[in-house]
Amino acid sequence: QVQLVDSGGGLVQAGGSLRLSCEASTRTFNTYAMGWFRQAPGKERESVAAISWNGGSAVYADSVRGRFTISRNNAKNTVYLQMTSLKPEDTAVYYCAARRTITQDLGIMTRVDGMDYWGEGTLVTVSS
């Protein structure tokens, strides 16, 4: 069992930045691809970004590409989501997720049903 603790959410004005963090409780963090998802009120959970086990590949949703950056530090068992140029429509609960895989193919990492473990979520609110 892997526990994911995500943090870093908060209230920010439009155009501002936030960095989310997710720490995993496993000694084999470098065998997991990691993803960030978000869920806005009344909407389905959607993929935001994903990164392969060694950081060699990353994918982004069209809505955040160029504004958000996913990264990881395997020595710290942590994945990050740097969010810039935030918009009110980015308001959501953000969840990190993990899937045990060492492929560079991240297609499945964009699917909610493809994840093995989930964090509890951290709320990001962007005011206009």
Give a topology summary:
Layout: E1 4-7, E2 10-13, E3 18-24, E4 32-39, E5 46-51, E6 58-60, E7 68-73, E8 78-83, E9 92-100, E10 117-118, E11 122-127
Parallel strand pairs: 2-11
Antiparallel strand pairs: 1-3, 3-8, 4-5, 4-9, 5-6, 7-8, 9-10, 9-11
What is the H/E string?
EEEEEEEEEEE
Provide the β-strand percentage band: over 45%
Spans of at least 5 consecutive residues whose pLDDT stays below 50 are: none
Instruction: Give the end-to-end Cα distance, rounded to a whole number of Å.
Output: 40 Å
Question: How many strand segments?
Answer: 11
User: Could you say which structural class the secondary elements and strand pairing correspond to?
Assistant: mainly beta
Shape type: globular
- Tell me about the biggest sheet? 7 strands, mixed
Kindly state the percentage of residues in helix.
Answer: under 10%
Name the average pLDDT. 96
Total DSSP helices: 0
Rg is 13 Å
